[in-house]
Known about the structure:
The complex is a heterodimer of chains A (324) and B (393). With 324 residues, chain A is of the alpha/beta class. Chain A has 3 domains: 2-108 and 146-223, Rossmann fold, CATH 3.40.50.300; 109-140, no CATH class; 229-323. Chain A has helices spanning 2-5, 21-26, 36-45, 52-64, 78-89, 104-107, 113-126, 130-137, 147-152, 170-182, 213-218, 229-239, 245-260, 269-281, 291-297, 305-310, 313-323, and strands at 68-71, 93-97, 109-111, 143-145, 159-163, 184-187, 191-194, 200-205, 220-223. In chain A, the strands form 3 sheets. In chain A, strands 2-5-8-1-9 form a 5-stranded parallel sheet. Chain A has a two-stranded antiparallel sheet with strand order 3-4. In chain A, strands 6-7 form a two-stranded antiparallel sheet. Chain A starts with a helix and ends with a helix. Chain B folds into 3 domains: 8-81; 157-171 and 218-392, von Willebrand factor, type A domain (Rossmann fold, 3-Layer(aba) Sandwich); 180-214, no CATH class. A 6-stranded mixed sheet of chain B has the order 6-5-4-7-8-9, with helices on both faces. In chain B, strands 1-3-2 form a 3-stranded antiparallel sheet. Chain B is flat. Chains A and B meet through α4, α7, α11 and β9 of A and α2, α3, α4, α10 and α15 of B. Chain B: InterPro entries: UCP010256 (IPR011195), Uncharacterised_CoxE (IPR008912), vWFA_dom_sf (IPR036465). Chain B: Residues 96-133 are annotated as: Disordered. Chain B: Pfam families: VWA_CoxE.
Amino acid sequence: xxxxxxxxxxxxxxxxxxxxxxxxxxxxxxxxxxxxxxxxxxxxxxxxxxxxxxxxxxxxxxxxxxxxxxxxxxxxxxxxxxxxxxxxxxxxxxxxxxxxxxxxxxxxxxxxxxxxxxxxxxxxxxxxxxxxxxxxxxxxxxxxxxxxxxxxxxxxxxxxxxxxxxxxxxxxxxxxxxxxxxxxxxxxxxxxxxxxxxxxxxxxxxxxxxxxxxxxxxxxxxxxxxxxxxxxxxxxxxxxxxxxxxxxxxxxxxxxxxxxxxxxxxxxxxxxxxxxxxxxxxxxxxxxxxxxxxxxxxxxxxxxxxxxxxxxxxxxxxxxxxxx
Amino acid sequence: xxxxxxxxxxxxxxxxxxxxxxxxxxxxxxxxxxxxxxxxxxxxxxxxxxxxxxxxxxxxxxxxxxxxxxxxxxxxxxxxxxxxxxxxxxxxxxxxxxxxxxxxxxxxxxxxxxxxxxxxxxxxxxxxxxxxxxxxxxxxxxxxxxxxxxxxxxxxxxxxxxxxxxxxxxxxxxxxxxxxxxxxxxxxxxxxxxxxxxxxxxxxxxxxxxxxxxxxxxxxxxxxxxxxxxxxxxxxxxxxxxxxxxxxxxxxxxxxxxxxxxxxxxxxxxxxxxxxxxxxxxxxxxxxxxxxxxxxxxxxxxxxxxxxxxxxxxxxxxxxxxxxxxxxxxxxxxxxxxxxxxxxxxxxxxxxxxxxxxxxxxxxxxxxxxxxxxxxxxxxxxxxxxxxxxxxx
Lengths: 324, 393
């Protein structure tokens, strides 16, 4: 409530009615009266079309305060959920990109060694005693916050995105579990730092390896699939507002049937949007008109040599003809 | 069978009903505990739980843990709350061998009820298959009839323990030590100077600790594809024990069964309780001992799972006799596609141990050019003997 009042650019009088979805989430109200449909609407306003299951999973993650694990193929918009959620809640998005060999120093905290060293040298010249130097260089001032520590020290609950958790090592997964259950981090030199606010945690995975049962059990789960035709149309309309209805239908139909083809790398939503942007950039308003241009714009959808070879001009024309 | 599917109306309150639903899911192979039950109840207070669609979505988010669960959830939900009448087969080892009639009618019933629901435990074309089985059984030996019933009668936990040891040894043999980079390690052959300097900063430039580094092991991942079609039934015992042992010995291993379709069994076999793992496997292996579509199964594997689980550090182990009802070209193209992912392919053929065997089965000869290793195996000892070959691979 308070952050609504202290926003200088929006005086009380001109605010939309309080039952507007956008407002509800900004005020961080949660409860039985807030339905997942409101969340769906609020996310749609930010340009993210979530199906019922996904919206419900996010809604529950917000109201139960549990981490949400999103799985699905690359390019179905898992990461985007976190970005949109932070926009809906008007909070910060803190992102931890996982990779093989990610360790605590990169994910949680690290001491600023260079600065400590300089400080020691400077202290020696000033004649400061060893004891006081020690307490000084292991203070907050010299602590480098990494995403996890940063996330639990925010005044307002941020959205913490732990992206591609399956790329991190299993040891890190175990450590993450501890943080996700207690929301506190122990720095030996400083003591235990407890969360000032519980972040909204979104984890994404696309199956590089199996995640441990322990992690799965601690999270709510949603499987994000490729969208169906209507959802994808809605996404396209939300993202490329200027596109004509007929062309939009063709694009979505084309991409949907392309996904059914035998491809090495199936195009995701981002690719579809690139494709649409490419077409509207070239001023095309009918897919079937110019086979050469269509073949050229396929560069936005097909990302391997084999796929390009498999989808010949004839195949592309057939798919475009079906979509039209 | 109603032991499994208790209908909600008989339970006194919402808590009991939810507990009943959790038990129902658990019986059907989802791994849920008290925590999930509590979370489900809490979740329902946050949604309009009178709305079935909302309740369904909410429970799905709480109870499912992986994509497979998500696919099955709808059927399980319908069966319990909407009284859909789907009868789940209770997974309990039959103490006394039941007569074939009872079994076949139960199977047929289950499959009819499943028909349109698309549950992973039943093939889409499962009905025809079951009938074909029924006819085949008139001529089949007692042994095969037993095979149909329950895998737990077939594979003993002791076998698994032994197979586990062998699998462990094979896994060790497959470890590739050619990594060029060195990583920090507790016991290493070189001093990690970068870390030394870094850590000495904290101690005023004095290197108090000497971190070390070493070339890390780059373990190969083993993906096993086991043929459990009719012609392979007599070897299934060995192979299934081996796979079960492998899954327990090696966290990164992955396993599939195929007969007329492909089933991923890795999740089921990772169950901590060996006996329960086999029980879950029996549910998945519906269609066991039926026809074989090696080509189609390998093709499906190379298109779907292989994309996620097979890379340059993977060994694909195929356990099959190569007798296929599909065209041999399909095997060839499927293996070629698999090979392009950079993996090693090993084919273990139980028939190869026979005197005078030649890979004349058309499927087998189509596969040969793509194999890195083609060996006989029909006993655990044979599998153990592979260790040397694998080291050289």
